[in-house]
Write a structure and sequence with these properties.
mainly alpha; globular; 3 helices
Length: about 70
């Protein structure tokens, strides 16, 4: 909800910059993201290719990434 500035129920490329920056800040990394970074994020997260990332798409990608690193979520 924090990053869904237009309250559409999903986030688009314009809203991704803040999500990425805040996520990395939580990990103690200050980084500026380029348009290529945003495109890569959208390609990875947006499974139905509609140009928007829903919470279920985001959650599925994060959980799959953690599981690939042998980190299990209950």
């Amino acid at each position: 909800e924090k990053y869904d500035s237009d309250k559409s129920g999903s986030i688009g490329a314009q809203e991704v910059h803040s999500l990425l920056e805040d996520t990395y800040k939580i990990m103690g990394i200050n980084r500026t993201f380029t348009e290529d970074d945003v495109r890569s994020f959208m390609k990875m997260m947006n499974k139905d290719l509609n140009g928007q990332v829903t919470y279920p798409e985001y959650e599925e990608c994060i959980i799959n990434s953690l599981m690939k690193r042998s980190i299990h979520i209950e």
